[in-house]
Amino acid sequence: MSDDGLSRRQYLSTVGGTAVTVSLAGCFGGGGGDGSTEITAGTAPGFPPFEMKQDGELVGFDIDLLEAVIDETDYTLAGWEEYEFKSLIPALTNENIDVVAAGMTINDERDQTIDFTDPYYSSNQAIVVREDGDFAPSSLSDLAGRPIGAQKGTTGETTVQDELISPGNLDESNYNSYGNYVLAVEDLQNGNIDAVVIDEPVAQTFAAQRPVTIAFTYETGENFGFGVRDGDDEFTQALNDGLSTVRDGSTYQDLTNKWFGQQ
Fold this sequence. Notes:
Blueprint: H1 8-11, E1 29-31, E2 37-43, E3 52-54, E4 57-59, H2 61-71, E5 75-82, H3 88-93, E6 99-100, H4 108-111, E7 114-116, E8 121-130, E9 148-151, H5 155-165, E10 175-178, H6 181-189, E11 195-199, H7 200-209, E12 212-224, E13 227-229, H8 233-248, H9 251-260
Helix pairs in contact: 2-8, 2-9
Domain Solute-binding protein family 3/N-terminal: 38-263
GO molecular function, one term: ligand-gated monoatomic ion channel activity
Keywords: Signal
């Protein structure tokens, strides 16, 4: 991943929950040039290698995969819109976008608001610390009393809340939430926090590019899926069929090798 790195300044142009890249085709917009229905995708850069900005361009595994999946359907991708992660589900339910591709874990809480496609990737949570630091935790209990960070609305944040704060092992004041993981890792590097809880493949990418390291992995058995509006059954089925086609051919493995290295 050394050639596909994320420039921290390139991502910082993403502001709040406002879409940075504006597309005109949200909510199943007009037909494409071939008569197909246009859809708009939403994502949250700052989550390498799934989605990030590189030389001002939106790139990543999720970007390539969704585009490949849509190519196998009767829909046409009109464009991408960029949000903070926590704003993606509201953007979807408000019909500003039609599908979310953002390393989003399928869970019961989200499933009450939106639907998901079949899973396309599995992950656990990793605890990242400074490479040259003296803090070397080996379990969640070792994080007690330490300033910890995670991205707002993610399962990393859920892990901190459910496994540390709720049982009383970490004071709420010791938890720092961030709009994206780039800012969290920068705070870690600068010594403002001692650890970041983040999805394992994303942690591996940061560790390859920055002076941080994975202290240990906390197994959560998460599955990522593309988010779709509740009730958009025809579109969901089309994406599932497209995903199956991509998996059955060489495209999925090619993209996995491209963004994660040989598996």
